[in-house]
Amino acid sequence: MNNSPNFWRTGLIMFLIIVGGLSLLPYIIPTGADQRVPESPFAESRFQAVGGVTLHYREFPARPAEGQAVRGQLLLVHGLAGSTYSWRHVHGPLQAAGYHVLTVDVPPFGYSEPIVPGAEGPDEAELLWGLIDALGEQRGRWHLVGHSMGSAVVARMAAAAPDRVDQLVMVAGTHETASEGGAGIGGVIMQYPPVQRWLTVIGSRRLLNEPGMERALSSAYGQEVEEAVVAAYLAPLRIRGKPDAVIRGLQAGSPPLASAELRPFSLNLIWGGHDEWVPLSHGRRLAEAAEAELHLLDEAAHNPMETHPDAFLDRLLAILP
């Protein structure tokens, strides 16, 4: 074995060159996310700065039938990699049923600013309640509906302002869904920026293309997905800075509430019987722990509001007053 100083010096230099090269390389590889936020992604698109963070939202005023009263205010919060587009099949019927509907892109997703709430700005509860306040929507109480990761968001909103919440509805998600973040030695390693960038590059190569997104959505939907839907999900993720922010957000996570903290609320769960992303067992466990009611959509998978909107609306409207 060679123990000469020159041998170890050369070995150290080579090691540093390799580590340095691996640390710089991911910043050279493009992610494919080079688009800018469009001026108006949808006809109803609006942008609002809250706590220094620009949020994209869409608002749908209640349109009850003649002689019918407005039934309440409803906030719809999407899941991981979703956006206001995820609720496209239900906001119209909810308007017609007499609800004032607000949908918003939770950063870093959709067309909102690519920051990590809580770590790089106000947390999700502060941002969304801040948006409601900025819009002047302070009258009365709100029904909060969250899908998948959005379930954890609405749970934190409810805990932050319980006197502003009427019904709390979690769809295919719990107060813990996608909230854990990095833990252990893996979490420590992920805090190293080049490692985060490598994850961004690898994730972008796998997901930020039509075949990758089609596979992911087909799995979540439990059925084939139309090309237009794939394109709509890809569009906001291809905006500059989005993939990096998503990886930072997944690493950061958010501390989940205890199940007992949800008991004071009128909590209902809606779940697809074929959900492979967040198994039904999670919903059953939460229903028991938080004394909530679980509504099962037997034929649906992880995104029932997109794949089975009529059945989803029947359950949701039966829950809401």
Automatic annotation (TrEMBL):
Organism whose genome encodes this protein: Natronospira bacteriovora
Recorded GO MF terms: hydrolase activity
Location of the AB hydrolase-1 domain: 74-179
Transmembrane segments annotated in the record for this chain: 12-29
Classification via InterPro entries: AB_hydrolase_1, AB_hydrolase_fold, Epox_hydrolase-like
Gene3D superfamilies: alpha/beta hydrolase
Keyword vocabulary terms for this entry: Hydrolase, Membrane, Transmembrane, Transmembrane helix
Domain of life, source organism: Bacteria
UniProt name for this protein: Alpha/beta hydrolase
